[in-house]
Structures
1.
Amino acid sequence: MTISSRDRVRRTFDRQAVDRMPIDLGAHFSTGISAFAYARLREYLGLADKPIRIIDPVQFLAHVDDDVLERFSCDVRILRAPWAATRPWTPRDGRSFQIPAAMDPQLQADGSWTVARNSQTMRMPAGGYFFDGGWPSFEDRPWAVQAAALRTEAERLRATGSAVFLMQSVWAFFSDNPEWLMRAAEDPEAMAAENAKRCDEAIAHVGRLIDLLGDQVDIIDMNADLGAQKAPMIGPKLYQQVSFPFVKRVIDFIHANSDWKVFMHSCGAICPLIPFLADAGVDALNPVQISANGMDPQVLKQRFGKRLVFWGGGCNTQQVLGTGTPDEVRVNVRQLVGTLGADGGMVFTAVHNIMGDVPPQNIVAMYDQALVSGRELAAVPA
């Protein structure tokens, strides 16, 4: 059985048989690749030297080109309105990247680069791979102009036969900002009232997107980093009061008005909160940070494998991908896919982005093993 990429992804959500596990690289800002690692990967693969477009200026992620997606048998394409204009920037080593024209990095005396825009400032240290600090927007176009660009890009992506992932980062009514956490703990009723207003705004925005894009899209994301490395940042009872009802309202609206699936990105040790995400109607959980406390992949699969698709968890980025050998990477992928992907319900990608210093050999080992293991799983009767 051979099916299209889009059908492969949709059948995975519906727990139907597939010819192999779907694969993702770069469909979301937490499943992507550092532009520095991407440049070395293209060279290692012997692919054409072409401009590397930056899709996320803060994390400095590359837009993954079709030749790389095809090399790794990827099934998902990211939908973002292209920048209105770009310009080249060469941070070091003679390597130039295409950044949004509104971004103006300034070299500092210590070798770092800073960007200041709309009261937000971010900094890339000398020799660094991404920016820290604020998250300035580099999009100045009116919504009508952005919408037209989104629609055109969606139609192009739909023609590829891939699943289309609308990267809009719908806020999930939670912030890891200490001030927000303190306010929620001190006055949960006021925070719930504030989130209720934001919920109305979120539903109106998502409604515009559904009207605009309709059946051109398969997945949309919500984002809230609920966990740190050792524990959730918010207790289950407080989360249930101040966040859960509004996450559910938005997801219910999406499901009632489209056939889009909802991808929830939340890093960290979030196992105590996953039942709420499942009850809210989340379809896929990312990044499945198996290196965090309480995130044992066998436990996650046993408890939530029938309710959620694991979009991630395919390779340990903290302890294996960047520091292990290619053989160690292959072993790690084989083990994690065998656990989280058993009986279906997994879209392969690493635990969060591929960082700037990851060797290209390890990236190739990871994706090649994912394809092999994904086919092996599909051949095993459920």
2.
Amino acid sequence: MSVDPVRKVGSRRKVAPAAGEVSSNHESTLDQLGKQAAPEPRTTYVRNAPEKETWKPSKTKGVRVSVPTERSDQVLNVPNILSFSRILMVPLFLWLVLGPQRDALALLVLVVSGLTDYLDGKIARSTGQITNLGVLLDPIADRLFILAVVVALAMRDIIPWWLALSLPLRDLCLIALVPLLRTRGFSSLPVHFLGKAATAVLLYAFPLLLLGDQVGSLANLARVFGWAFSLWGGALYWWAGLLYALQVRQILRTMPRSRR
């Protein structure tokens, strides 16, 4: 009887070495099988990126890595001007709501701010005008507008103070994590989709709540949808904050301390 020295390993056919022989090919085959059985790494973080680069996630052979994309030091371009204009709208909105209480104009300011928030990111990505200043201005403008709106609506008794304080409290919790990130060589984490979605939902909710402070059937309908968007957006806002905190935890567990 003859023994077939060919056996099937995975989806390939390998020739087994003769009994008693020490085969280097056999050892390499075992090494390959061990590598295949090893768990696949999930995320690779890149720290200490050059100042003129920003980082975005991408997929390479099933492993998520960070790929650098160039950004410039340009100050005056269309996306940055839109972000600047959104910051300048913050005191205007506060004055309209708390001063003469011109709610119609304040509502218009909210709508325009939401459009600029959408346009500055879209224009920057489509035209390649991603700058160091723009990366900082966009989230700052969003946080300032959310803070100004919730404080103004709470002072007008349109929303309760617990809701007004819960949103900036989330931002304060994330700011407290920045020193931990710096120990690993990071200054911040990239904004992910859930965080942008939460901000967008809240920017839809605030005009509806302001419109719902009026009298009439349209105001009643706006109040219902405004509260629905507010609760949904607030939950998403905190959920996104939790995901940021989990990212920080993963970095602290997997990355060594920075020597800088």
